[in-house]
Write a structure and sequence with these properties.
about 110 residues, mainly beta, 4-stranded antiparallel beta sheet, rod-shaped
């Protein structure tokens, strides 16, 4: 009598071999937004996804030039009736000290830049 080279595995072993291996990888989350952004410094692709909000009211701050969430500082263009305000040959800017937060936009929201 000859022995088989590969014996038949038990039902329990066969079931474990047939089941797909559970591979658990690290949970990858999107990077958190930067705490400082500035036109001309921050990459345009990143600025396209950034929203700057007033931390207390949650309202969007539009026409942002520079924002520092840690320092609570925003530099933005002045807007009147939906248009930028000119001061001679330059656009007027507003510098504010207030609590802000910088977030990624979800695509259905307006961006600040």
């Amino acid at each position: 009598m000859t022995k088989p080279k590969n014996p038949v595995p038990s039902a329990e072993v066969a079931a474990a071999m047939a089941a797909p291996a559970a591979v658990e990888g690290p949970v990858v989350k999107e990077d958190s937004p930067p705490s400082y952004v500035k036109l001309g410094v921050t990459a345009p692709a990143e600025l396209d996804r950034i929203r700057v909000l007033d931390a207390e009211t949650g309202t969007l701050i539009a026409k942002v030039i520079e924002a520092d969430a840690e320092a609570g500082r925003v530099v933005r263009y002045a807007v009147k009736n939906g248009a930028l305000v000119r001061d001679g040959d330059r656009y007027q800017t507003i510098e504010e000290e207030r609590p802000i937060r910088i977030e990624w936009s979800t695509g259905n929201q307006k961006d600040s830049f």
